[in-house]
Amino acid sequence: MVLCLLCTAVVIILLCAKIYLLKKSAREISEQFADRLKNDTNNPVYVSSSDKDIQQLAESINTQLAELRRQHLSYINGNNELKSSVTNISHDLRTPLTAIRGYLDISKKTDDPQKLHRYMDIISERTEAMQKLSEELFCYSMIISRDEAPELEDIYINQILAESISSFYPVLTQNNITPVIDITDEKIIRRANKESMQRVFSNILNNAVKYSKGDLEIRLSDAGVITFSNIADEITAVQTEQLFERFYTVETARGSTGLGLHIARYLLREMGGSITASCENGRLTFTIMI
């Protein structure tokens, strides 16, 4: 009887000690968790208990805290990017609007046909810039807001690239750009979306029109690697890394919205492809793999 009582007392003492340690660990977790939420820190939650379940609980909380910090950082970056984008769009809209209004006011004060014709040309140019910006914004919003990924099929890359170059040829020659074209005779078939690839090539060619100084090399290798290359000695290595960012434009760009290359990268990623930019010895090269 006495032995039973002693055993019972020992068990009770051990249980009490266990409960005390668990409560201590719970207080530690509670205090540290509140501290991690309040302060911007990467320190994990530590517990003094060696209990396996308590350790797993702390590990689970640390995992959730890390995810929460990642989402918070993503939110901050996205919010900053949104503010920057709104500022850029406002500037791109305000600049041509200010010019249009100014030249309209000047036009009211003159009857000179030559001056009026010149003013109307400038107004038309600014209007086209605004139209282009609105079309790019609409296209971008349609692409990122669609619920389903584009339908993929086996497409003939050689033909699509050649057709894209052909459609841009008048614009290229008008800007004194004579492209050097090297498209392999090897039939390059890739699983992609035809309209998306046409848009990608169009955006890159349009970029070449803005930045090229008269040269443009377009190549499609036997391995299916596509490169667009032109002299762009005013673009720095830092600018090259930023070319695919939304609304980013190089200062020398004429009528650029800063969305073309971003859209090209977005579409290629949707299809499992990639696009990179490099600048060596004053030559800018875009490399596409699909």
TrEMBL record:
Residue ranges constituting the Histidine kinase domain according to the UniProt record: 88-290
Main location: membrane
SUPFAM superfamilies referenced in this protein's UniProt entry, alphabetically: ATPase domain of HSP90 chaperone/DNA topoisomerase II/histidine kinase (SSF55874), Homodimeric domain of signal transducing histidine kinase (SSF47384)
Compartments reported by the entry: Membrane
Catalysis: reaction(s): ATP + protein L-histidine = ADP + protein N-phospho-L-histidine
GO cellular component, one term: plasma membrane
EC number: 2.7.13.3
Membrane disposition: Multi-pass membrane protein
Keyword line: Kinase, Membrane, Phosphoprotein, Transferase, Transmembrane, Transmembrane helix, Two-component regulatory system
PROSITE patterns listed in its UniProt record: HIS_KIN
SMART domains to which the protein is assigned, alphabetical: HATPase_c (SM00387), HisKA (SM00388)
Pfam families: HATPase_c, HisKA
InterPro entries, per database record: HATPase_C_sf (IPR036890), HATPase_dom (IPR003594), His_kinase_dom (IPR005467), HisK_dim/P_dom (IPR003661), HisK_dim/P_sf (IPR036097), HssS/ArlS-like (IPR050398), Sig_transdc_His_kin-like_C (IPR004358)
Molecular functions (GO terms): phosphorelay sensor kinase activity
Protein name in the entry: histidine kinase
